[in-house]
Write a structure and sequence with these properties.
Order of helices and strands: HHEEHEHEHEHHEEHEHHHEHH
Distance between the termini: 48 Å
EC number: 3.4.24.78
Helix content: 40-55%
Radius of gyration: 21 Å
Shape: elongated
CATH architecture: 3-Layer(aba) Sandwich
Keywords: Hydrolase, Protease, Zymogen
Organism: Desulfitobacterium dichloroeliminans (strain LMG P-21439 / DCA1)
CATH topology: Rossmann fold
CATH superfamily: HybD-like
Number of helices: 13
Oligomer: single chain
GO biological process, one term: spore germination
Structural class: alpha/beta
InterPro entries: Pept_HybD-like_dom_sf, Peptidase_A25
Length: 328
């Protein structure tokens, strides 16, 4: 079964724009109209910039017009401080360019997700490690005066904990604090196993909490909040339907290469595929999400990298050594 057919049949969403773009290009074997792509290979990262340019691109990609930057960092799994520092600097540079902030801008950081569920705790953990300054802006250490922007932060929880739509909480805070920019951090769902914990996506189009796990909530974007919104996401889970489909695809590839089994291969059809997957995933259908065993360590590492990148990009007067010292 083609991956696009699988996603449609099982109502599975793809959070990463780069994966949606790869899927469309693969199925059509051509460039996606209304969409541009640029790839930059660095020492410890590959930076892919997808820009949805017009309404045709919006229809093809199924997401808002804007810029989506994916930073692939497979070495994030390595326990190497210098590598992590380089990844942090790369993310900081991309954020600085995308945000384009004035020196006196005020920023609200929003850590989306459920702090009680480790795969969904990225946002709250980033907030826990971030350098917030709004409450102390006039009382900062002498060596930091003139180097900071006003940054406030909130981890609002999820609807199941608060009974309040997350967008409503954030909108109320925005109306009172009046930030120039909101930066929302959230865990995403990957379309391939190798991207779990290794692909950081930033975009200027906002975010829809819970969309990757089929629990779409009210969007957090400029339209709903009245100010610019930058989204930062990291895949921490993957839908089991995609994994099961990949296993069947591998089996069929083996059948194709065997003359004795080629007749069996020809008997398979998309409908047979769907029936097999339905049985394998019963009773969860598209509601079974998979995450690595070491997800707690993965969340801690990536949360520190993202918090560090935010500190460096939001407070440009702070050096790399200083941001490490003042991080919570």
């Amino acid at each position: 079964m083609k991956k696009t057919d699988l996603l449609r049949a099982f109502n599975v969403n793809i959070d990463l724009a780069v994966e949606a773009h790869e899927l469309l290009r693969g199925d059509a074997d051509t460039e996606v109209p209304g969409v541009s792509m640029e790839v930059d290979n660095l020492d410890h990262a590959t930076v892919t910039t997808i820009k949805i340019l017009n309404e045709q691109g919006v229809q093809e990609m199924g997401r808002p017009q804007g810029t989506y930057i994916t930073i692939d960092v497979p070495e994030v799994h390595d326990n190497n401080y210098l590598t992590h520092q380089d990844i942090t600097k790369t993310l900081s540079d991309e954020l600085t360019e995308l945000m384009s902030l004035s020196e006196d801008a005020s920023i609200l950081l929003v850590g989306l997700g459920n702090w009680n569920a480790t795969p969904d705790a990225l946002g709250p953990q980033v907030i826990d490690k971030s350098l917030v300054t709004r409450h102390l802006f006039n009382y900062t250490p002498v060596e930091l005066q003139g180097k900071l922007r006003k940054v406030s932060a909130i981890a609002p929880g999820v609807l199941g904990i608060t009974g309040i739509e997350t967008a409503e909480i954030i909108r109320g805070i925005v109306e009172h604090v009046k930030p120039d920019l909101v930066i929302a951090i959230d865990a995403l769902a990957a379309g391939s196993l190798e991207r779990i914990g290794t692909s950081i996506q930033i975009s200027d189009t906002g975010i829809s909490p819970g969309s990757g796990v089929g629990n779409r909530r009210t969007g957090i974007n400029e339209e709903t909040l009245g100010c610019r919104v930058i989204a930062i996401g990291l895949p921490t889970v993957m839908n089991a339907a995609i994994i099961a489909n990949n296993c069947l695809d591998s089996l069929l590839d083996e059948l194709k290469t065997s003359p004795a089994l080629f007749r069996l291969y020809k008997e398979f059809s998309p409908k047979v595929f769907e029936q097999i997957l339905e049985k394998a995933l019963y009773p969860y259908h598209n509601n079974l999400m998979v995450t690595p065993k070491e997800v707690d360590s993965l969340i801690q590492t990536t949360a520190r990298i993202i918090a560090g990148a935010l500190g460096m990009s939001l407070h440009p007067g702070i050096s790399t050594e200083e941001y490490q010292m003042y991080m919570q």
